[in-house]
User: Fold these one by one.
Assistant:
Number 1:
Amino acid sequence: MARDKAPKGPKAQKIGNRWAGPAMVTSALIGLLWIVVFYVLNGQTIDYPSFLQWYADLANWNLVIGMGFIVAAFGFAMKWE
């Protein structure tokens, strides 16, 4: 007896990457916050605590780092279904 090749019911839908949405939003917010903090503190004559001195030493590279987080958010958006 030949079997029917017709599907017997609806296929289960594949659930997308559940982590991509929260990762996208988190990455975008970190990047935005990084850049805002840089602009607010830029030109200020404040004494950074020793554990934050690296942030001041990065100078304009802080913009690159912040934009990197934002570009990563676009990468996560491509994984989001």
Note: The longest helix spans residues 20-41.
Number 2:
Amino acid sequence: MCATMLTLQAIILGLSIPVMIAVQDVEPLTASLLGGGLAVLCLVTAGLLRQPWAYWIGHAIQVATIALGFLVPIMFFIGLMFAALWLGAFFLGRKIEADKARWAAAGE
């Protein structure tokens, strides 16, 4: 679930680049580095989620997405929305994994 959230977030971050440039007059290089860099980081992190430490990168991505609101104010809302979805997926995934482990132990 977390990988799916990061993949969807990467799409939104990629689409935020033209908004930063056209609507908020952010320099194209800055917009590309921030939006594109975070989008690539989302995709790379989605692939690394087999490692426990990758979830910390996912948390940092949520903070960085919210921080984009200082350049594009609507990103405060979008960042908070994705942070809520990320945390929901994170905690639900942990609960599912704990239930699977409990069921496997009970079945042995």
Note: The first helix runs from residue 2 to 22.
